[in-house]
Amino acid sequence: MSRPVLQVVAASTRPGRRGIAVARWIEQLAAEHGGFDVELVDLAEVGLPLFDEPHHPRLRRYEQPHTRAWSETVDRADAFAFVTPEYNHSFPGALKNALDFLSAEWADKAAGLVTYGGASAGLRASAALKPVLGALRMVPVVEAVSVPFFARFIDEEDVFVPNVELEAGGKAMLDELLRVTAGLRALRTA
Ligand SMILES: Cc1cc2nc3c(=O)[nH]c(=O)nc-3n(C[C@H](O)[C@H](O)[C@H](O)COP(=O)(O)O)c2cc1C
Description:
Layout: E1 5-10, H1 20-33, E2 37-42, H2 43-46, H3 65-75, E3 79-85, H4 93-100, E4 110-116, H5 123-135, E5 139-140, E6 145-147, H6 164-189
Parallel strand pairs: 1-2, 1-3, 3-4, 4-5, 4-6
Bound molecules: flavin mononucleotide.
């Protein structure tokens, strides 16, 4: 069987964002892990407008070319690692918008949460995101990565340099994503 596709979804879209370094780190860690074919999905590059479809996404009657393209992208994933900052004690609107655009494309797929922020390590973003993922029938794995004072881990070249705990946490999340993905793949093809 082919390796499952893991999409690392970078949720910050703002100019000057710092968190793209966190997403690149997770992308690299996942590539080294070896269990997945890894894609970085940068919501800034995807560039979706505010949700502009007339029909409920579960009908898949998409009218906009950008929705069809987004649907194709997400469809080919078997699992996701959402890399998100905390904005006002939640996750960015760009991520909610990207999630709302689709429905079945997300369903029965595992999700790992990688959050970053100040003292809170993005944990409130994680708490806000989980019920949304649940509504879309995604399965968030318990192993997650939360980075407090994350800018301290970014060097002058904008590279995220994890400590041993973060690295171990990232590997544990990837192991669990792979384990759950195997079961969910069977469920999706049943
Ligand atoms: C609109 C906005 C809201 C923010 N709210 C929070 C917050 O609730 N908690 C927190 O820890 N940091 C918060 N921050 C600070 C962010 O952690 C910090 O700006 C970080 O760089 C944002 O990630 P990004 O650079 O990848 O966009 C906020 C930043 C912005 C721009």
